[in-house]
Amino acid sequence: MENTVENIRAQMRKGLLDYCILSILGKHEAYASSLIEELKAAGMIVVEGTLYPLLIRQKNQGLLDYRWEESTQGPPRKYYVLSDKGREQLAQMDAAWQEIIDSVNTLKRV
Amino acid sequence: MENTVENIRAQMRKGLLDYCILSILGKHEAYASSLIEELKAAGMIVVEGTLYPLLIRQKNQGLLDYRWEESTQGPPRKYYVLSDKGREQLAQMDAAWQEIIDSVNTLKRV
DNA sequence: TTTGGTACTTTGCGATACAAGGTATTAGAA
DNA sequence: TTCTAATACCTTGTATCGCAAAGTACCAAA
Questions:
Q1: Of A16, A61, A106, the CB nearest to B42
Q2: CA distance B15 to chain A (A)
Q3: What's the CA A97/C1' D10 distance, rounded, in angstroms?
Q4: Which letter does DSSP use for residue A21 in this model?
């Protein structure tokens, strides 16, 4: 892999996508395409081939539920919502994320 | 993969190890075992099977140089130092890391 | 009825973190 | 001398993940 700035960022993003998805769904329900838009707006680029398997994994882990909803502009949408278990996991991820930041800060110090 | 706290942290660590190694070597030279100790002290658990290939990759990318040094307590140690290219990369990684934090913060906001 | 837009899904590949096992050097004990 | 323990470096095989690319399906408007 080349050392481009984008590749550096891509590598750092890895492992945070699960957290980002749960964070968004912790605020409001969403369907895949809208998740991609929201992630992109925040600077977290994700593509379909990454997101769909990820949502299926989280659903299979019991972190998410979903319901189908008709759209006026195309095929029906699969709206995902956070389950109770998903909320617990999100809380743990919030803590884990803070610890990671602390760890990096510790390493940067002196 | 189970949803244990440790697994959550492990996933988030992924992609940050390169950055952590360069950050440490940006402060002082080090050999593999000492890197593991310093990472562990900061809460960034890494094992040998991860670190050695990583150091070899970074060396092959021209980010690191190394020199052998005798030890009074065992076999010789391979001390790694940051190359000029490694320093440039570290600077880019510092920026990328800050952007990642900003992105997550943006997602968490309302 | 055909085209374009939206949305969901799958397949195959490359990269990486890790567990587990292996090699080599040194110092000190038996 | 030989064996053991500690230190240190390295490799192999596996699982997972992110992504590019291709595929399927629905709907509305031309």
A1: A106
A2: 5
A3: 32
A4: H
Tens digit of each residue's pLDDT (9 = 90 or more) over B6-44: 788 888 888 899 999 999 999 999 999 999 999 999 999
pLDDT in tens, B48-87: 999 999 999 999 999 999 999 998 888 999 999 999 999 9
Report the amino acid identity of residue A4: T
A1 touches strand C (CB under 7 A): yes
Using pLDDT thresholds of 50, 70 and 90, give the confidence band for residue B110. Answer: low
Which residues of chain A approach chain B closer than 8 Å at the C-beta?
3, 5, 8-9, 11-16, 18-20, 23-24, 27, 38-39, 41-44, 61, 63, 89, 92-93, 95-97, 99-104, 106-108, 110
Asked if the Cβ of residue A75 lies within 7 A of any atom of strand C, the reply is: yes
C-beta separation of A84 from A72 below 8 A = no
SS3 content of chain B, % helix, strand, coil (to 5): 60, 15, 25
